[in-house]
Amino acid sequence: MSTPVIVGVEGALGLFEEGEEITVDSSRGDIYRGHTSVL
Fold first, then answer.
1. Number of structural domains, the chain?
2. For this protein, what is any one GO molecular function term (predicted)?
């Protein structure tokens, strides 16, 4: 089953700043608005 993981604000901002990480994860639909990651 999928496990929801809450990402801290700083971690979320870091992903957005990096650009690449958020793009890779969002392409799989793992990160929603940079706050929740479903593995």
1. 1
2. kinase activity
In a domain, 28, yes or no: yes
Do the domain assignments include residue 37?
A: no
User: From CA 17, how far away is CA 3, in angstroms rounded?
Assistant: 25
pTM score of the predicted model: 0.18
Phi-psi region of 10 (alpha: psi -120 to 50; beta: other; left: phi over 0): alpha
- pLDDT, tens only, 1-39: 566 565 666 666 565 555 555 555 555 555 555 555 454
**And the tokens for 38?**
């479903």
Q: Reduced to 3 states, what is the DSSP secondary structure of residue 29?
A: coil
Domain of 20? 4-32
**How far is the C-alpha of 27 from the C-alpha of 8, rounded, in Å?**
20
